[in-house]
């Protein structure tokens, strides 16, 4: 079956359709996606990349498919954020850093560690947009320079 093909990902605040993707689904190279209204299209990018806020898939016919970040079950961490962020980062766990809290994906091992360190840990359901890697934009998976 032939699907419209995504030829690029561009910065855009508008779209003709939209898809709802969680954190893991926003990291892709080649995949068939389906919009909220049922349009199936093929994402076929030259290399794997992370889709960021305010980006859209540009289809061959010029249509734009925006990306809405899905609500996800997350751990909300409060307390000594600088210390807790260090421990989370030392374990290479993606983390969304805000002024009064940290957010990470649910992980019972990290949760127990943080509680032992004195963190207030609760659960929330909301979009997850962690910090990108230090060696590139978006996610990075190696320390290669």
Give the rounded overall mean pLDDT. Answer: 92
Spatial gap, N to C terminus: 40 Å
| Low-confidence blocks of residues | 141-145
How many separate helices?
2
Tell me roughly what share of residues is in helical segments.
Answer: 10-25%
Largest sheet: 6 strands, mixed
| % residues in beta strands | 35-45%
Element order, helices and strands?
EEEEEEEHEEHE
Arrangement of strands in the largest sheet: 2-6-5-1-4-3
Which value, in Å, is the CA radius of gyration?
17 Å
What tags apply to this protein structure?
single chain, 145 residues, mainly beta, 4-stranded antiparallel sheet, disordered C terminus
What secondary-structure arrangement, pairings included, does this model have?
Layout (H helix, E strand, L loop, with lengths): L4 E7 L5 E5 L5 E8 L5 E11 L4 E5 L4 E6 L1 E8 L2 H10 L5 E2 L4 E4 L2 H9 L3 E8 L18
Parallel strand pairs: 1-4, 2-6
Antiparallel strand pairs: 1-5, 3-4, 5-6, 7-9, 7-10, 8-9
Describe the structure concisely for a colleague.
It is built from two helices and ten strands, in the order βββββββαββαβ. By secondary structure, the chain is mainly β.
Your description of this structure?
This protein has 145 residues and is mainly beta. The strands form two sheets. Strands 2-6-5-1-4-3 form a six-stranded mixed beta sheet, with no helix packed on it. Strands 8-9-7-10 form a four-stranded antiparallel beta sheet.
